[in-house]
Amino acid sequence: MGAKKGVSSAKLNQEYKALRLQEQKERTKFYMVLGTFVIVVVAYFLWSLGSTGGASSNPVTGYMVYAPEDQQPVCGSPYITVCCLDENSNNICDSEEDRIAQQRLVSG
Question: What is the pLDDT of residues 68-100, one digit of tens each?
Fold first, then answer.
């Protein structure tokens, strides 16, 4: 009877180790999924924060103008505040001059 009890104890010990190993694998899988989720959420947050801070789309040219949120973009001459080309320095974007001239002819 003593030998049977030892075999049974060894078998139980082996089953216990297998069960613990399975639990450890499941726990590891859970933490890997959780870690991946956290990384994706943090990456999305950083991306969304970076894509809105300081960048604005220029309505005339469509180019992105980068400046701190509390400041206007600074453009060197011959570019005006919206950072479009203004070679004749009349504070009207060169790409808009024809359209504005036509509007003035029609309205006045």
Answer: 555 555 566 665 566 677 788 777 778 888 887
Q: Which two tokens stand for residue 74?
A: 């600074």
Alpha-carbon distance of 94 to 100, in angstroms, equals 10
Q: Residue 99 CA to chain centroid, in angstroms?
A: 37
> Per the omega criterion (within 30 degrees of 0), is the bond before 78 cis?
yes
Cα gap 87→78, rounded to integer Å:
5
pLDDT tens for each residue of 6-63? 568 888 888 999 999 999 999 999 999 999 999 999 988 887 776 554 445 445 454 5
How many residues are recorded in the chain? 108
Is 82 in contact with 92 (CB distance < 8 Å)? no
β-pair type (55-57, 64-66) = antiparallel
Other Cβ atoms within 10 Å of 81 Cβ, number: 13
